[in-house]
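pls design
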């Protein structure tokens, strides 16, 4: 996936997360607001009712001769309100019954009553169908009787609750749709925001590609001229010879940089045409190790390949050679004189792997992720002195990805580094 597609996906996900958090906060706020506004009214109602009943009952308690007219109290209440007056001996003195369906539950709640006087509680009980019944209840002490009395007043708020729950479900459903829409719009908008950047980037890339391409010819000319001067017998001055030698070295470095740049730019453009065929990986490794042998010998580095077995992998031969060379070249570059570099090969679960292990300077954990970035060099001075431009591993990564493989690095700082490449024996949708 290209950098722009990835950024677009990331942006879309970020938009959606923000939207999700916002909607969730909104829904829970609305829920809290609804809960508060509906239930504070109900609370007020049952508290008032409790007070009414307590006053009325108190009145009757003080005039035991008056005949008790339940309706007088009952008139205050509506269908869903109910009350029960008990004395301390659990004797029921008066009541306005709750519906038959919920009465046992209410009596149960009263028998276990633990709330303070006048505080309101909500009690819930699930019935056989899994639906819950909710009642809101309060209690109040009544004075004036021979034995202390308490009135328990309540209201069936099941319908209110389920109404509120339905409203919340609808809101969640709408929020879900809004989220999906925001995902689609987010993706669309992120795409639009990306367009100008993408175009500017493309122009830059094209410029870099053209420039590096154009640089190749003059560099080749300078190189050929320097070669010519080198071999010119009329130039005998050692200083001049040294100058020409330096020019050749610099031109060589530049030629490499330019060709690396071109590789990176082309692969990004997917213009890198791969010529995939089945090649014996062990032969490629053997050959590249042989090429590097003289350089390793210069530094008295013991460079060897072990456990090579002849296995064919689908790959672009030139690219695979380049990959092995980059890794072995780095290993030799970043290993001090007298060290060792070992290339090893093995197979596992339908994959062919090879590793390039050295006893060199190692890579710190914080640098391990970055070394695959373009132009990233841990120690710029050292890398430059060795002809590095920080593109090697970026190219290695590109090549591995083009082959649907994986590259990994293990390293102990100061002790050595191991690059591991894992390749498929069959490419998806190909050979
Ligand atoms: P360079 O051209 O600088 O070698 P690379 O992309 O090949 O660029 O590597 C990036 C950086 O990773 C190097 O500058 C070096 O610091 C580090 N590095 C790569 N290979 C090794 C290794 N085998 N041992 C230690 N450091 C390494």
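designed seq:
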């Amino acid at each position: 996936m290209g950098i722009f597609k990835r950024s677009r996906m990331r942006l879309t996900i970020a938009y959606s997360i923000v939207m999700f958090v916002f909607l969730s906060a909104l829904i829970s706020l609305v829920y809290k607001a609804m809960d508060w506004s509906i239930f504070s009214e109900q609370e007020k109602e049952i508290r008032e009712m409790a007070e009414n009943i307590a006053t009325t009952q108190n009145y009757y308690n003080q005039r035991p001769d008056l005949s008790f007219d339940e309706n007088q109290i009952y008139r205050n209440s509506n269908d869903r309100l109910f009350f029960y007056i008990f004395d301390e001996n659990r004797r029921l003195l008066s009541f306005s019954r709750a519906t038959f369906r919920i009465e046992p539950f209410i009596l149960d709640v009263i028998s276990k009553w633990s709330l303070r006087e006048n505080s309101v509680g909500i009690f819930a009980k699930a019935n056989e169908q899994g639906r819950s019944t909710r009642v809101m209840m309060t209690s109040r002490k009544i004075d004036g009787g021979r034995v202390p009395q308490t009135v328990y007043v309540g209201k069936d708020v099941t319908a209110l609750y389920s109404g509120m729950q339905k409203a919340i479900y609808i809101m969640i459903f709408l929020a879900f749709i809004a989220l999906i829409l925001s995902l689609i719009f987010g993706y669309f908008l992120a795409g639009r925001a990306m367009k100008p950047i993408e175009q500017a980037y493309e122009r830059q890339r094209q410029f870099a590609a053209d420039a590096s391409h154009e640089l190749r010819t003059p560099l080749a000319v300078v190189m050929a001229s320097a070669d010519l001067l080198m071999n010119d017998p009329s130039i005998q001055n050692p200083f001049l010879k040294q100058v020409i030698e330096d020019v050749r070295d610099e031109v060589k470095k530049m030629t490499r940089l330019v060709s690396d740049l071109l590789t990176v730019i082309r692969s990004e453009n997917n213009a890198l045409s791969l010529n995939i065929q089945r090649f014996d990986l062990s032969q490629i490794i053997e050959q590249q190790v042989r090429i590097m042998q003289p350089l390793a010998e210069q530094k008295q580095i013991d460079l060897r390949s072990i456990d090579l077995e002849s296995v064919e992998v689908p790959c672009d031969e030139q690219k695979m050679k380049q990959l092995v060379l980059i890794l072995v070249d780095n290993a030799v570059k970043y290993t001090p004189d007298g060290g060792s570099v070992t290339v090893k090969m093995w197979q596992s679960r339908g994959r062919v792997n090879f590793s390039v292990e050295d006893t060199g300077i190692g890579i710190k954990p914080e640098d391990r992720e970055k070394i695959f970035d373009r132009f990233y060099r841990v120690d710029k001075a050292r890398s430059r002195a060795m002809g590095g431009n920080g593109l090697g591993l970026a190219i290695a990564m590109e090549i591995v990805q083009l082959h649907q493989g994986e590259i990994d690095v293990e390293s102990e700082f100061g002790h050595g580094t191991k690059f591991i490449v894992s390749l498929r024996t069959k490419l998806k949708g190909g050979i």
